[in-house]
């Protein structure tokens, strides 16, 4: 990573057995929670749950991609991170469009189920975030994994707050506001990852040229 460690050190850290195991655990948790939240979101009519479910799906795919490129060179891991950053930006745009559509056509979600599922998702993602916390300062690929887990935990907490808001007001507005906030977070984090990945690609090319 630029300004953090040498090229060889970053490669060794990214390919460590502990990081690989952490990614497998994160992959399984995210795939399972995608199924739970997707079904629940459709059942209760919650845009926030639906958005969080799609986020779980995207993260599961990201973890699978990260596992694939762990033993590759820095430039390929940075390119994978670049792809993930672009995917996060696209996810944010899709969720924002879905929330705006629901504002005009949606119905008020059922808050109890929404809150229970949100709490389950928060517990799952808090565990994953704690597991990945030690790897947050690695290269662009490792940082993108940490940002995904952090965003998930924040998103789950927001879903719980949205459920409380829907319960207290009887309105779908808290659900839609949370969905919009989650989409904004995905857009911002995606742009951060893209910028970091581009720096890593530039550093890797410089190392290659010097070698």
TrEMBL record:
The lineage of its organism: Bacteria, Pseudomonadati, Pseudomonadota, Betaproteobacteria, Rhodocyclales. GO terms for molecular function: monoatomic cation transmembrane transporter activity. This is Cation efflux protein transmembrane domain-containing protein. Keywords: Membrane, Transmembrane, Transmembrane helix. GO terms for cellular component: membrane. Residues 23-194 form the Cation efflux protein transmembrane domain. It is found in: Membrane. It comes from Thauera terpenica 58Eu. It holds the Pfam family Cation_efflux. The keyword Transmembrane applies. Its main location: membrane.
